[in-house]
Design a protein that fits this description.
Layout lengths: L2 H8 L3 H4 L6 H22 L5 H18 L3 H7 L5 H16 L4 H23 L5 H12 L2 H5 L4 H33 L1
Length: about 190
C-alpha cells in the first residue's frame, strides 16, 4: 500500500492525504485505532459479569473486527503501536486478568499467552476472507480422515467447527489461568 495508490483508490490527489497524515504509518495507526474502537464498542455491548465472560467478550469482539476487516492483521504487524484504542483494549484485558487473581510475572505471561493466541487465531482464521473457510474445507477433505469429512461438507460447517475450536482453546487457557491463581492461593 502506498499513499499514491490509496489516493487513486479514493479518487483524491495523494498529496491530500498528507494534509491529515504525515506518513503511511500514521494513516495505518489511525485506521487500526478506529477499528479497535469498534471492537471496544462491541465488547462493551456484550453482557459479561465474570472474568471469563469478559475475556470472551473482548476476544469475540476482536474476532468480529478481524472477520469484517481480514487484512487488519498485516497492518497491525507494521503498526508503530501508537493506537490509543489499542492501549485501551489491552488495558481492559489486563484488568480482567487481574480479576482472575493474576499478578506479577504470571499476569505478564498470561497476558502474552492470551494475546498471542487471540491475535494468531484471528489472523489464521480470517486472513484470506471471504474464501478462507472454503480453502480450509478443501484442505480438510484432503486429510481423508472421516471425522474431518463429517465437518467439511460446507464452508459454514468449517466456520462453526472453527469457532467451536476457538472457544475450546480459550476455555483451556482460562482454566490454566485459574489453576495458577488457585496454586498461589493454596501456597499462602
Amino acid at each position: 500500500m502506498t499513499m499514491r495508490a490509496l489516493g487513486d483508490e479514493m479518487g483524491v490527489d495523494p498529496t491530500a492525504l498528507y494534509r491529515h497524515f504525515p506518513n503511511k504509518e500514521s494513516l495505518l495507526d489511525a485506521m487500526i485505532d478506529w477499528l479497535l474502537g469498534e471492537a471496544i464498542a462491541i465488547a462493551e455491548k456484550t453482557p459479561a459479569k465474570s472474568p471469563r465472560e469478559k475475556v470472551f467478550a473482548l476476544a469475540k469482539a476482536l474476532r468480529q473486527m478481524f472477520e469484517k476487516h481480514p487484512d487488519i492483521g498485516l497492518a497491525m504487524m507494521y503498526s508503530e503501536g501508537s493506537s490509543m484504542n489499542g492501549l485501551i483494549f489491552s488495558r481492559r484485558g489486563i484488568e480482567v486478568l487481574k480479576e482472575f487473581g493474576l499478578a506479577g510475572d504470571d499476569l505478564v505471561r498470561c497476558y502474552q499467552a492470551i494475546e498471542s493466541f487471540i491475535m494468531g487465531s484471528c489472523v489464521h482464521d480470517f486472513a484470506g476472507s471471504p474464501h478462507n473457510m472454503e480453502v480450509r474445507r478443501i484442505r480438510y477433505r484432503y486429510f481423508e480422515v472421516p471425522e474431518f469429512d463429517n465437518h467439511s461438507r460446507r464452508a459454514s460447517e468449517v466456520r462453526k467447527i472453527t469457532e467451536d475450536g476457538f472457544d475450546l482453546a480459550m476455555n483451556a487457557i482460562l482454566d490454566r489461568f485459574q489453576e495458577l491463581t488457585q496454586k498461589k492461593t493454596r501456597s499462602k
